[in-house]
Amino acid sequence: MTSRDPRLTPARPDLADSRLRGLVEAERFVDGQPRRLAAPSAPLRRTPRSEAGLDTEAIMGEPVTFYDVVDGFAFVQLGLDGYVGYVPEGALGPADPAPTHRVTALRSFLYPEPNMKRPNGGYLSLGASVTAHECEGDFLRIGPGAYLFAAHAEDVGHRRPDFCGTAERLAGTPYLWGGRTSLGLDCSGLVQLSLLMAGIACPRDTDMQEAALGEALPPGLDGLLRGDLVFWKGHVGLMLDADRLIHANGHHMTVAVEPLREAVARIAEKSFGAVTSIRRLPRIAA
């Protein structure tokens, strides 16, 4: 059997996606069922245990393929980037209706009525998608007893091409390994969220991003442009201009902006080693 990336392969020794029949070994093969993430966000873990480490997060409205339940955890593959793992079973909902709006505020509270003075029932993060059933005053009704401030959302088809601007809005967000929301982000989560808001498909982890995104530039730190991606083995940052890098990092434990050359020197000495590549994405028309 061909070796496959376990992060992206919906297969266990006892069960696998029927599309993998003949490609992987498993006791049985099943057809995945379409679902959507119905919770504001949900942790995706490698094993069905709440104490297992956080691999990534799913955000409301994202499509999910469901395969199995183990001890209250659903074995799934995320439609956004293909990541495989376990999310709480209760975080899943039906695939339909499809989302109509996407959250553009960093965070926006949900209310039981179209009234900002009512106690909120949680929040949605930047990039979450919802189905708006109707507009009541300044609010969108997105479900029974669930209202979202309308100005904090836009049509799901709208794109924000300045992905660096999105990243800059997230400056100061705490660092969270596996995080993909505006409450906490890791380095590749920051890049992925920023690009997805611009309508650019983006893998989840740094090695995948380095292999898939843009074209490699010649070695060196000169002549860089806003939007260039700087990669290390296990880390990534985004250039805001020729000199400044924005990245979620464990040194600052936040999304921070700093001079590229200072970051390169520190990272070479203390963590990820030398820069492995710098990649340039196609320019996006505003």
UniProtKB/TrEMBL annotation:
Alphabetized, the UniProt keywords read: Hydrolase, Protease, Thiol protease
**TM region(s), chain numbering:** none
Q: Name one Pfam family in it.
A: NLPC_P60
Where do the NlpC/P60 domain residues begin and end?
Answer: 156-282
* Family annotation (InterPro entries): NLP_P60_dom (IPR000064), Papain-like_cys_pep_sf (IPR038765), PG_Endopeptidase_C40 (IPR051794), SH3_16 (IPR041382)
PROSITE patterns, from UniProt?
Answer: NLPC_P60 (PS51935)
> What is this protein called in UniProt?
NlpC/P60 domain-containing protein
Q: Which organism is it from?
A: Methylobacterium thuringiense
